[in-house]
Amino acid sequence: MIRSVAFVCGLLLAASSSFAAPAIRSADRVIIPVSRLDRAVAFYTALSFVATSPEISSGRVLGLGHETIELVPSAGRPIPSDSRSNDRWFQHLAIVVSDIERAYPVVLQAGAVPISAGPQLLPAWNPNAGGIRAVYFRDPDGHPLELIQFPPDKSDGRWQDKDRLFLGIDHSAIAASDTERSLAFYCDRLGLRIAGTSENWGIEQERLAAVPQAHVRITALRAANGPGIELLDYLMPRDGRPMPADTRPDDIWAEEIVLHAGDFPIPEERLRDPDGHALRIVVDEKEAAW
Predict the structure, then answer these.
(1) Over the stretch 167-193, which tens digit does the pLDDT of each residue have?
(2) Terminus-to-terminus CA distance in the chain, angstroms?
């Protein structure tokens, strides 16, 4: 899948539109800009991603379980070296593993840079997140990633497969400055549904996100098929920086979520969400990957 042209500026949330509420059927994939394609492919294949189709132009499509990503070489600006988990350009893939204590050394050996202070077990007092184990790290270009291990009562049955170490992608998490404003975009306009909510705080969340005093409102969104989109609204601290106003599609931080719509009047549309995260809505059945 090849990214082209530029982002559509503005959201037009209040404007009348003949496609105000497209029927999103699935999340198809996340397009990830990389500075060196060979290095990125080597990193993700070390995490058990495999090529799912021939090379498309200069990019590479890789799959893990039922999900895919697309790595696209870009010459844009790098991810700021002082990026934090509450900065608005933060976006990560949540890679599900069957044993996080075994998987985390694999990603470190592949060249990952830690964000978290090691794998964290979310506490039992939090009914919607207790028992989940997670750790954040960065790929060679600085893209945040997460390993996540679900307890049996908080996951799809396939996430309990013990025959493989790296299982698939559960969601793409994005920083959001205002949950209600984001819900107006993702639910009211795009038609996604709320699949779950949680508020996470405490020492485990601080160590996971590497953000002191972190208190995060989490809202999981899903279409009928495919991985979800997870909104991370930091209630504390409130010092997360906005997406740069001059963000271009080839900037390394400018990942793009591709959504498949079953009822849409034009073949393709590119949008930004309220915080500047990029999305592409496609209709052609050949575009669907997840």
Answers:
(1) 999 999 999 999 999 999 999 999 999
(2) 13
